[in-house]
């Protein structure tokens, strides 16, 4: 029986998820197809999922909170994050997961970091902060405006406004979760602050993928080990793949290796 999967978002034309999943199905000889669906109203997510008879889906910007609210059961760290990027249909119920968090952690787990600074306080920062906290990594947040920091303050994170921040401690890992550098040449906070931070850090990670952002470019000047968001994208997809097709008993690492080859 052919199984159907899809990614929902707006915009969605640029998404690499269909390529990653379909090429992996083809490689493994699995009878499945993964499409992309442009959604204009998040409230219609569940109706669309059910009417397309999907076995599973990924949900991306700006519908992850809808995916959290509309599924029948929220599983794992998605409960704390308040956002789901993966839905799986199980016995006529929809289970919601967040594989962004674990996907990010897979990328940095071998670094052995003890402290991290996250720049940005949006949806992806929630996933990154909560998975770091789950692994006992002391995490501080920096954002240009106050409102989105409240989520993190309420959960006990050290939070600062970029304008009011002065570097006192040091951070092993610095993560850009903002969209600064995505379609422009901006840094996520002042160059002066970043220089002070990079001077004492070991690793820089930018969630943006496919380009060397000004953030990563500056980090390279300080000889930090730098990563863009490509591996996070691959791991979140591999973890979703594993949830979609559990009977295959594949390891996420093996799926990720396959997907990495596809992307190259
Ligand atoms: P959100 O819109 O939820 O949050 C964006 C955050 O970035 C906010 O805190 C915002 O600050 C801040 N911000 C935006 N522009 C600037 C700027 N010019 N300077 C400083 N701060 C800025 O976005 P997401 O968290 O969902 O996504 C953020 C990025 O992460 C995107 O580029 C996305 O593509 C990438 N991403 C990559 C993934 C991967 O697998 N590699 C997975 C998920 C996301 P404010 O609160 O003041 O508005």
From TrEMBL:
Q: Which residues bind NADP(+)?
A: 120-124, 207, 229
Residues binding shikimate are 15-17, 60, 85, 100, 209, 236
The alphabetical list of record keywords is: Amino-acid biosynthesis, Aromatic amino acid biosynthesis, NADP, Oxidoreductase
Q: What InterPro entries does the annotation carry?
A: Aminoacid_DH-like_N_sf (IPR046346), NAD(P)-bd_dom_sf (IPR036291), Shikimate_DH (IPR011342), Shikimate_DH-bd_N (IPR013708), Shikimate_DH_fam (IPR022893)
**Stored CDD domains:** NAD_bind_Shikimate_DH
- Entry's Gene Ontology cellular component terms: cytosol
Q: Tell me the GO BP annotations in alphabetical order.
A: amino acid biosynthetic process; aromatic amino acid family biosynthetic process; chorismate biosynthetic process; shikimate metabolic process
Residues at the active site:
64
What's the domain of life for this entry?
A: Bacteria
Record has Mitochondrion as a keyword: no
**Its catalytic activity?**
shikimate + NADP(+) = 3-dehydroshikimate + NADPH + H(+)
Its UniProt pathway annotation is: Metabolic intermediate biosynthesis; chorismate biosynthesis; chorismate from D-erythrose 4-phosphate and phosphoenolpyruvate: step 4/7
Family under the similarity heading = Belongs to the shikimate dehydrogenase family.
Subunit and partners:
Homodimer.
Q: What name has this protein been given in UniProt?
A: Shikimate dehydrogenase (NADP(+))
């Amino acid at each position: 029986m052919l199984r159907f999967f899809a990614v929902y978002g707006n915009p969605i034309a640029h998404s690499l998820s269909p390529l990653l999943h379909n090429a992996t199905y083809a490689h493994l000889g699995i009878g499945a197809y993964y499409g992309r669906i442009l959604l204009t109203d998040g409230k219609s997510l569940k109706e669309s999922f059910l009417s397309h008879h999907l076995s599973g889906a990924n949900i991306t910007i700006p519908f992850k909170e809808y995916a959290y609210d509309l599924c029948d059961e929220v599983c794992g760290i998605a409960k704390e994050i308040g956002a789901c990027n993966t839905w799986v249909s199980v016995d006529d119920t929809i289970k919601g997961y967040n594989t962004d968090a674990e996907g990010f952690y897979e990328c940095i787990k071998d670094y052995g970091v003890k402290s991290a600074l996250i720049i940005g306080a949006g949806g992806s920062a929630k996933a990154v902060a909560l998975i770091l906290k789950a692994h006992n990594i002391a995490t501080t947040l920096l954002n240009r405006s106050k409102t989105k920091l409240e989520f993190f303050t309420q959960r006990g994170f050290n939070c600062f406004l970029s304008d009011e921040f002065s570097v006192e401690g040091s951070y092993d890992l610095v993560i850009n979760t903002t969209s600064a550098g995505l379609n422009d040449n901006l840094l996520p906070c002042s160059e002066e602050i970043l220089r002070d931070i990079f001077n004492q850090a070991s690793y820089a990670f930018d969630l943006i993928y496919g380009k060397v952002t000004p953030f990563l470019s500056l980090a390279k000047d300080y000889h930090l080990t730098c990563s863009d968001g490509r591996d996070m994208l691959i791991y979140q997809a591999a973890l979703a793949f594993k949830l979609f097709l559990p009977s295959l008993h594949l390891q996420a690492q093996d799926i990720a290796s396959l997907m990495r080859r596809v992307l190259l």
